[in-house]
Every structure is written in structure tokens, then in C-alpha cells.
Amino acid sequence: MGKALELNDDNFAQVLQDNEVVMVDFWAEWCGPCKMIGPSIEELASEFEGRAVVAKMDVDNNTIVPSEQNIRSIPAIFFFKNGKLVDKQIGVPNNAKSVLLQKLSSLI
């Protein structure tokens, strides 16, 4: 069963370069909404295993990439295709998993 890949400032660029479709959940341990959407992120990691990379980055432990990506509030879920940012979801939408599923599916 797939699990969301833990990204950090050091491996972020390489993961984007090595994979066609990458979804990154920028989160923090203290963030309530991040914890609410966390199980959906893990489920998507399993469902899209082999087709897309579903990843998480803790913004408290990594400051370079969140700053470069202009993260102002979390959760911030960014969708990359061929290394380029193509979509984003800020905050937790209604029907979070289906919203993220649709965005991710559209990139494959």
C-alpha cells in the first residue's frame, strides 16, 4: 500500500524532475485543517501508486521550498506536471478527497 512520500528541501527538485505528475501537500504538525485532510492524502498516495507521486512537506522542518513556492497558508496542495506548477488547492475544500482526486486525475 502506498504512502505519501516525505519531501524536504534537499529532495524536492529531484522528485519533481524524476516524475511526470507530483502532488505536494504543504502542512505542519500544529495545523488542524492539515490533520483533517491528511488521511485523504494518504489514500490518494495508495490509489495513484505507480501513476503519480503524492507527497507531503512539513513547512516547519523545511523553509527553503515553501518560501520559493510562496506558501502563505496551509494546507496548501500543489500539483506539478513535468516539473511545473499547474494547479493548487489552498485550505480544505468540501469533499476534499474527491476534489483532489479530480485535480490529480486530470494530469495523468
**What is the H/E order?**
EHEHEHEEH
Continuous helix count: 4
Question: Given this structure, which CATH class is correct?
Answer: Alpha Beta
CA-based gyration radius: 12 Å
Show the helix and strand layout.
Elements: E1 5-6, H1 12-18, E2 21-27, H2 32-47, E3 53-58, H3 64-68, E4 76-81, E5 84-90, H4 96-105
Helix pairs in contact: 2-4
Structural summary, described in words:
With about 110 residues, the chain is α/β, with parallel strands linked by helices. It has one domain (about 5-105): Glutaredoxin, CATH 3.40.30.10. It has four helices and five strands. A five-stranded mixed beta sheet has the order 1-3-2-4-5, with helices on one face. Strand 4 (about 75-80) and strand 5 (about 85-90) form a beta hairpin. Helix 2 (about 30-45) crosses helix 4 (about 95-105). The longest helix is centred in the middle third of the chain and has 16 residues, at about 30-45. The protein is globular.
Summed up:
This protein has 108 residues and is an alpha/beta fold. 35% of the residues lie in helices and 26% in strands. It is built from four helices and five strands; from the N terminus they run βαβαβαββα.
Task: Jot down its keywords.
108 residues; 5 strands; 4 helices; Glutaredoxin; globular; five-stranded mixed beta sheet; alpha/beta; single chain
